[in-house]
Amino acid sequence: MDIQTGDNVYFWQAGRDQLVGWVEATSDAVDLDDSMPRGPWDADDEHEYKRRFEFVVKDELSAIQRWKVTKAATNISQGPNLAPFEIVDSAAEAYIQGLFTARFDDDEVQAADTYDPRPGEDLRTTSLRAIKTRQGQPEFRRRLLSAYRSRCAITGTTAVPVLEAAHIDPHRGPHTNKVPNGLLLRSDVHTLFDSFLITIDADYTVCASISLHGTEYAEFVGKSISMPAADEYKPDDGALARHRAKFFEKESTRVGP
Known about the structure:
The chain is an alpha+beta fold. Helix content is 24%, strand content 17%. The strands form four sheets. Strands 1-2-5-6 form a four-stranded antiparallel β-sheet. Strands 3-4 form a two-stranded antiparallel ribbon. 25% of the residues are buried. Strand 1 and strand 2 form a beta hairpin. The radius of gyration is 21 Å and the shape is elongated. The chain has two domains: 82 residues, no CATH class; 139 residues, no CATH class.
C-alpha cells in the first residue's frame, strides 16, 4: 500500500490500543534519504522509518474505542499493529470517521450548509458507490456531529458509533446533505424517523405514532429536541413541516399497539 495525495490516513497507537489521529495526505509518500531532517521523535528511536508524507489534521478524536470493538463493527480483518493497510469498505471508513468530531472553519460551514430545499429534484448519480453509501454521507454526518455536539437530538445519547445523520427532506443527492436538512439521531430513532413513526412538531417537540404508545419511545413524546447553538444550523422549518405532514398522512391509517 502506498499513500498518495488526498488519501485519508488514520493513526493507531499500539501502547494505548486506540486511534489517535485522522489526517489527509497533502503529498505522496516518498522514500527517506540522508538529506531529509529527522522527525520530532527521539534520536535513539529504534524504529527505522522508511517513508514520509505531508498532511493536514482532519478531525479530532471524540470517542476512545478499543480495536476489538472497532473490528467487530467494521468487519476489518487486519490488525492495526502490523503494516499499514487500506480500508476498502466505505461503510467501515464512515464508521471510523464517526469516532472523530469534525473541525470546520465557521465561514466554510455556513456557506456549505445553506439549505435551498427543492424536494422534487433528484440530483443523485447512478454508480456503484451511490449504491454502497449515499453521496457525501460521511461528511454530512460529521457536520451534524459537530453541530449537535455529538448528542442525539431526541434521546441525548452520546455514544458516537450509534449516532446517525437523518435527512428531514429525503436524500436527493449532495444538495440535500445540509445541516438544516438533518438531525443527529440514535440509529433506532433514525429508523423510526425515516419510517414516519416519529416526527418533530412546530414547537420542536417530539411527536410519536399511536403505534409506539406503551413502548419505551413514548417517554420522548412532548420532549423538546436538542438544538445546535448556531441558528443557521437549526432544522429547517419547511422541511420539518413536510416531514410532519407525511407523518400525519400515514398516521391516519394506523392503529394502536
